[in-house]
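To fix ideas, we now present one chain and its tokenised fold:
***
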Amino acid sequence: LALVVPSTRSSSSQNRYLSKERAHNVARGFRCRRHGLERNSGISQYRFLARLRGGNGGETENADINKQSRERVKLLKAVRKEGGKKGQDLVGMAEMGGMEFFCTSLDQCDGDFDLMLESLQAMNKEVNPAMLESVGGAGGVGKMLFSAGLEKLAMLAHVPADKTDKISAEKWMQYVAEQTGLDAIVVTGSNETVAMGQVPLNASINAYPLKVKDNAIPHAIAYLKSQGVFPERDDESSDIVYGDDDFPDEDDDGEDGIDRTVKDLEKLQAIGS
């Protein structure tokens, strides 16, 4: 097979014939475009041709790992961005209303304590005045975070050390777990500055994480009111009180999941100290 390419260089070379190798490269380029790939997209010829033939080219596994890594980086960026913005929201409400404790939900964490830790760190990070957009700055604010995943509702409480005389994170979490029921637990190792809790999915009684979250947040608010650190308001329509724009409206359970959350809790000690 030879491809004819018209040329305007001279009348004697109006029809130039490409070599077989060049014709093959051109044909492969058409296949690349047909499969939505660019010739210079970083995919080697061997991997690309192996993909067309249904093989792995010995690199599919590595490609999957790289893809997962890129997705994780992208997810962490979204988690930290959400946490930083939430932090600024909480600080703004604290300064405007004089409140010290809030409840808020996290949309990006999907019930994952590792991601909730990243979000909390972004919330508590000191504001960088050199940045155009202020983020974080909520290290001095007490808060309970809620994240509904597919298999559980994860809860994370952080109380600054200088506010533990008013509220204990562990007692706060214990109250929410007891009032919520549904096999809710407080992770062993929780203390007065940081606490973790979770409520597993129970589809048999329609106890889905999103639904449980909507019931758990009012219990967390009720505890703050009982301790005199949350103002009584007649206007219940003001969502800003809760530090959660969508109020009111998932990852493993079992021993392995609890062991992992204990490790996460140990990481939080630095935040609470």
In short: The radius of gyration is 27 Å. Residues 60-97 form the longest helix (38 residues). Residues 10-18, 33-44, 234-259, 269-273 have pLDDT under 50 and may be disordered.
